[in-house]
Amino acid sequence: MQNSGIEVLFEGSNFERLLGGLLVTIEISFVSIVIGTVLGIVMGLLRTLNVKPLQALLRLYLEAFRIIPILVWLYVVHFSFTPLLNIDISGETTSILVFSLWGAAEIGDIVRGALQSMPKHQEESGAALGLSRGQLYRYILIPQAIRRMVPGAINLATRMIKTTSLVVLIGVIEVVKIGQQIIELGVIKAPTASFWVYGFIFILYFAVCFPLSRISRRVERRWQN
Amino acid sequence: MINTGELLLEVEGLQKSFGERLVLSGIDLQVVKGEVTVILGPSGCGKSTLLRCLNGLEPVQGGRISYHGQDLAGPQVNWREVRQRIGMVFQNYELFSHMTVLDNILLGPLKVQKREPKEARQQAEQLLGRVGLLDRKDAYPRQLSGGQKQRIAIVRALCMNPEIMLFDEVTASLDPEMVREVLDVILGLAEQGMTMIIVTHEMGFAKSVGDRIVFMDQGSICEIAEPQQFFTQPATERAQHFLDIFQY
Amino acid sequence: MVMNLDWEFIAESLPLYGDAMWLTLKLAFWAILFSLVLGLIFSVILYYKVKGISFIIQAYIELSRNTPLLVQLFFLYYGLPKVGLRMSEVTCAIVGLTFLGGSYMTEAFRGGMEAVSRTQVESGLSIGLSRTQLARYVILPQAFAISIPSLGANVIFLLKETSIVGAIALMDLMNVAKDLIGMHYKTAESLLLLVAAYLILVLPLSVVLSWLERKVRYAEFGD
């Protein structure tokens, strides 16, 4: 049988190494989502308060992430922290920092959107039943708000996992970097390695993101009515 | 008055179901040229579905719809051609929201019938004049009231020069004060001898416009009678019950 | 944090950033144009549920939306030549961005088409319009207006995604900034220019988009 080159994926510990690299990506996303969610909920609540300067400030914060690409922010933190602020910071920490701040902005917007889109009559009919303020939040407002938030939040998670692929560009050793190492090592023995390795990484990302977007779509449809 | 003259449309044993549910079970109906048929019946009796079948908007499961010797219930119907001759107006005055009044009216004559623009435009303006809306010809649907929109929807169908007009509860979504202006247009058409099938809930209108009343209930026709007869002495108990509901 | 910026350095670097912005705009222009064309064709095919092709398009959408552009580009640029398909950096970038953008544009158009009400379609049918006429005169014009906000969001998205093409050796804004930092250690100046460049590229679009969004929402031709 002719050597197709796909063997490069299974040589030595290559397969495990690639999966390990993927795990680094997922870890960065996961930690960032957790931190981002906590910060984002606070931010979202703050944005519903009617404090004009605060609203403007938080809006500006969100727009900063919507207008400037994430990769630019990764570069800004990566290149400026050590030389300008004399703080030694690893690629992973840089990534988590940037992704958490981005996540906070987006989750904040999701929370704000969910809270503000709550129909007034829901609150009024609850109050008409004699529910206390606390009961109103506990049984009506919070459950409904969560339903409005979850699909968007899962969506954000998918976007974030895809975007973490960029961290290789600031020197984090993750799945793409490990792929590059495998390709470089096998350059003579397996000349088609880059086709298989990048193809495989492509499939890996798909395998992680596709189920997530499926779930988000299903949740969205189920909770629509 | 009933069933004389040239037979235009003949429905025989028409069957229609949505999945398991039978909504039309064996409808027989004949429409003669120049005749105004009003279909009455409680909600969900299948009267709107019947109209939609006649315009090919719903596939049917059995029976025949004969129109100029062509079976509209068959598989190989050129609906594009038939629809040019059977006009339809809907409940929700569905004007195309991105086009002006005149463009709405001219879309069919120009693009479907490929008529001479000048001639089609003349007819459109003449029809608009007749419903009293010539001055609104360049307006967009959003700038019009419901009654105005519905009158224009009627003009849009008329401008195709149809042989038969189908009206599907055309006043049901209108504010009460606008019902009259629309019904007057239809009455005018009746006076000119237009063949029409009208589904409505307006009893007084049904009485004055209809040459005959078709009363439907639960997917079939219960009785066909002249208006005078139907509104004073309906033949069936179900019709009597239906009429009772409309009188306090 | 008070920094003494080297204004002379900034002035000297401006042409470099200008060239890179021009490259970004060029790439984005072609990618957005091709994505729109792709999206328009695909969404019509999906709307009419053309057998066979619809499934392939659906599969493409999932692949495109659930994988990162960086990996798509690496595969195109480093992977494909190994099986005989070699493209220039610029071609690769445009193909990659279009592969990504095509699915987003398809979804935007499709959302718009599905928002055109069933009754509008039926009135079109009732005056005898054919399927193509229905699409051309009734569905697409309305769908397009409904889709404007999401199409605009996609345009901004693609413009921002061009920041990744530096990874396949194109001298884009990211690489200009990186090189300047590496060669001259003018970190603050280089990064400042980088952020400014993206502000200049994206901010006007973003302002226009939110204006359009408001206009579409309030002046919808609906009833």
Number of E-type strands of chain C: 0
Beta content of chain A comes to: under 5%
Mean pLDDT of chain A: 86
Q: How many beta-strand elements of chain A?
A: 0
Content of β-strand of chain C: under 5%
State the shape of chain A: elongated
CATH architecture verdict of chain A: Orthogonal Bundle
Task: Assign the CATH superfamily of chain C.
Answer: MetI-like
Catalogue the unreliable spans of chain C. Answer: 219-223
Could you give the order of the helices and strands of chain A? Answer: HHHHHHHH
What structural class do you assign from the helix and strand content of chain A? mainly alpha
- Rg from alpha-carbon coordinates of chain A: 22 Å
Query: Remind me, CATH topology of chain A?
Result: MetI-like fold
Q: Could you name the CATH topology of chain C?
A: MetI-like fold
- Separate helix tally of chain C: 8
SS class of chain C: mainly alpha
Secondary-structure map with pairings?
The complex is a heterotrimer of chains A (225), B (248) and C (223).
Chain A: H1 14-48, H2 52-67, H3 70-85, H4 91-116, H5 120-128, H6 133-163, H7 175-185, H8 193-222
Chain B: E1 7-18, E2 21-32, E3 36-40, H1 47-54, E4 62-67, E5 70-71, H2 79-85, E6 86-89, H3 101-112, H4 117-130, H5 146-158, E7 164-168, H6 176-191, E8 195-199, H7 203-209, E9 212-217, E10 220-225, H8 227-232, H9 237-245
Parallel strand pairs in B: 3-8, 3-9, 6-7, 7-8
Antiparallel strand pairs in B: 1-2, 1-4, 4-5, 9-10
Helix pairs in contact in B: 3-4, 3-5, 5-6
Chain C: H1 7-47, H2 53-65, H3 69-79, H4 89-115, H5 118-126, H6 131-161, H7 173-184, H8 187-219
Helix pairs in contact in C: 1-4, 1-6, 1-7, 1-8, 2-4, 3-4, 4-6, 5-6, 6-8, 7-8
